[in-house]
Amino acid sequence: MSPLFIIFGILAIIIPVGLCIFYKNKIDELTTDNGILKKRNDTLEERFNAEDANDTSATASAWEFIQRVGRNHQFEVHEMKSGDDWVEFSFSYQDGAFTGYAGTKDHELTLHYPCYFGIKRTSESFEKVRTLCQRATREFRFIKVLYTYHEQSNELDIHFLIEVPNVSEEAFMDYLKRCFSKADIIRQTLNGGHMSTEVENQDFARQERMLVDAEMQHESKTRKQKNPLVSEPNHGTLREYIAYLFNGEDVEDMLALRVQDTKTTKYIRERDKIANFDILGAVVKGAGEEAEFADFEPVVLTLDAVKNHYVITLHPLKSRKDFLSVRMTAVCTPHEFLQDYVPNATYEPQAISMLICYVKTELPALEEDDEELPTTSNSKQVYHGRQLMQQNYFAQAISVLTPINKQLRANYFKLSKKDQDLYFSTCYYLGFCYTDLHLYEKAHYYLSTAQDCNRFDYSQEYINCLAECHDPRVFKAIDDEIQATRAQLDQIDKDEDRGSEEMMSHRERLVDYYAFLQRRRGYSQINFGYLDDAADTFKHLLEHEGSREYAEHELKYIETLKKKKQ
Fold it and tell me: Residue 487 CB: number of other CB atoms within 10 A?
């Protein structure tokens, strides 16, 4: 046997044995590591189980959460009503009576706190309560301040509505404390106190007198009909109102809608159903002549979408033979996780209050001698939108006018002269509606188009919009109009027929328009802090009969501002 064969034989035995020993050691090491990992995992699991036993807020439903908070803070939670996935409850904490709705399968939790009862309704008290609720909703941020009207007793009540997210006990108790502190502010304000300084209150009062000059000049001319003259009104879907008022969310972005009245809570999670939800159907039962309010208590719609959180409150107001009136308050709040990406200036909640109406019957046909009798389908639609605008149903007017505006704009160069004029009319009406809703960017978009028509009413509304939103371009717009008006007055004064009735009427209209421009100039000078210039402007306006009262009021306001500065 050769030595080489012996060497290969020995290697054939040693190598397999060595490999077996090597892999056996590796297997033992892995087994040991797995044992250590398993032990660590068991330890962590025990720790997590112990933590879950001590704090179940992460997994408990809203109903379990509110019961646990009651036990820990020594107040008893009473179950009033229940459904498949919700419970209506009540409890008292520090003499405060709270009610609310809690989910039994999710973390949906809403609190309701009565703030102030038994305010006798007068025109003055109603306006004060309405304005206070709007201001408080903007200032209190997490609390929605609502009012209800009881027709039998002719009284107003003020309530807080708080939507509580999935929070800790400490944060929940902080919400309760906020209710008490904010309620004190409301009571002090209603009993003669002030939420702000005297100057701030006066300034707010000036802002509330929306479009003073518009009412003095052209708005009064359009308010002729007692009822909105539309035979097929667009009552509006949730998607339409969100789109027109808050720039909109796509249908696929609408996640969940909650419809809550005094008795029930309904949840809708199908996105198409949310988008096409009939706003007025939430407060109206029946249809046509049989339509009536289901209840005179408010209904609250809460919409969660991808970008924003919306709360829409519907307050039934008046039930008349031909239509029902509802005041709708809509609040849009961007989600908190977007705060890092959205500038602070645009993160503040938007709050809009407006009237909407449910038309019960087909209203009387237009009279044949009406000068503005519409003759085409386009002009009829514009006329219907204008009628809604005249009755202050601005949101519904927008929903009627927007489609026809888009249609006319897309075919503008193919239109007849009459339809081109109709297009500019829709721009004017839409701008008017958006200005009254304080949506100035949208208003400017339409009014800047209408203003090019060189019409008094269109130009007035354009300048009103610039003045109300404190746009610095207002001064140039006013100066341009003043120069053009002066030129026309000079031309009339030099005309041979200046004494004719037609010329005198036109001259009087130009003088009134010139005074309007000066009023808007003085108003804007105050807004930008040019108090001395504003005083000079209004002193000259004392000579104009139609502006005297307005000028006197503004001069007093200027004196108040100057004393405040001193």
Answer: 10
Burial pattern 205-226, b for ≥16 Cβ within 10 A else e, equals ebeeeebbbbebbbbeeeeeee
Rounded CA separation 337/304 (Å):
14
Q: At residue 391, what are phi and psi to the nearest 5 degrees?
A: -95, 10
Q: Encode burial over 367-391: b for 16+ CB neighbours within 10 A, e otherwise.
A: eeeeeeebeeebbbbbbbbbbbbbb
User: How remote is the C-alpha of 391 from its chain's centroid?
Assistant: 20
DSSP 104: S
The tokens of 3 are what?
A: 């030595």
Instruction: Give the residue carrying structure tokens 């006197």.
Output: 552
Q: What is the rounded distance in angstroms from the CA atom of residue 450 to the CA atom of residue 452?
A: 5
Count of Cβ atoms closer than 10 Å to residue 284 Cβ: 21
Give how far Cα 423 sits from Cα of 398, 402, 449, 453, Å.
Answer: 14, 11, 10, 11
Please give the C-alpha separations between residue 448 and each of 9, 296, 428, 525, in angstroms, as whole numbers.
101, 41, 9, 22
C-alpha torsion sign, points 33, 36, 39, 40: negative
What is the DSSP track for 150-178? ETTTTEEEEEEEEEE-S--HHHHHHHHHH
* Distance between CA atoms of residues 246 and 331, nearest Å: 9
> If 0-12 CB within 10 Å is exposed, 13-18 middle and 19+ buried, where does residue 190 land?
middle
For residues 430 and 402, the answer to whether their CB atoms sit within 8 Å is yes
Between the CA of residue 29 and those of 22, 23, 26, 34, 221, what are the distances in Å? Answer: 11, 10, 5, 9, 94
CA distance linking residue 238 with residue 250, whole number of Å: 12
Residue 277's pLDDT is what? 92
User: Tokens 């503008």 belong to which residue?
Assistant: 412
List average pLDDT for each run of 10 residues in the chain, which is 566 residues long: 64 67 59 50 51 49 89 88 85 86 82 85 78 76 78 83 76 83 82 54 43 35 35 69 81 87 86 89 84 85 86 83 83 68 58 83 46 69 84 86 89 88 92 89 90 84 89 91 90 82 85 89 90 91 84 88 80
Inter-helix orientation angle 417-436/394-410, to 10°: 150
Beta-carbon contacts of 117 under 8 Å, excluding residues fewer than 6 positions away, are 155, 157, 158
**pLDDT tens-digit series, residues 497-537:** 777 888 888 888 888 888 889 999 999 999 888 999 999 99
- Read off the pLDDT of residues 387-424 as tens digits, 9 standing for 90 and up: 888 888 888 888 889 888 988 988 888 888 888 889 99
